[in-house]
Amino acid sequence: MPPLICPRCGATHELSGRKAGERFSCSCGNELVTPEPPRRRWGRKGILILTVLALPCVLGIWGVAFYMKRMRELEQSANTSFRTDARAAGSTSDEARINVIALCDAVQMYRSENGVFLPAGPAPREVPKGGQPVPFPKDEAFEKLGFTPGTAVRFQYQVVVQENPVGEPEVTCYARGDQDGDGQNSVYSVTLDANGMTSPVKAEREDE
Question: Is 81 inside a domain boundary?
């Protein structure tokens, strides 16, 4: 603590050993009071040190968030590419089987992030006929699910949410198509229960 100078006579008084607020008299008779010790303030150097120490934490949080977002984008891109290749190389039933599983996976992922099952579709509005691809329309629910079967599809897709006999939600994902154009639909379905368990693909009238 710096010495105290008497404002009356200019005498200097060392303050070592004195407590803050302690009163004492100068030789000139003027009463003096020991001041409070100066508070330490953060200067530019201190602020710079804090910034440097905090920077790795900030960058780390931002990096993790960016990494998770990028990984999800890559996963969706890979799934879309895989489904497109499968449709190009396989039969029309391959499209239905692959996409209906991917659709239920998207429903479960949405539920894990938002706490609810989201119904969607049917899209396209009419069931494609004759095995001919038709444009897959923009649909808000499917976009929220992140379900991207491609620009053209040969099946109609839908997510139906309903309660089972014990009152728990149950999801059924459908793919419907009329491959031979006779008015009878092939139906592929996967069920998803409240625990996130999916069933094998069930196919009805697969050759229609």
Answer: no
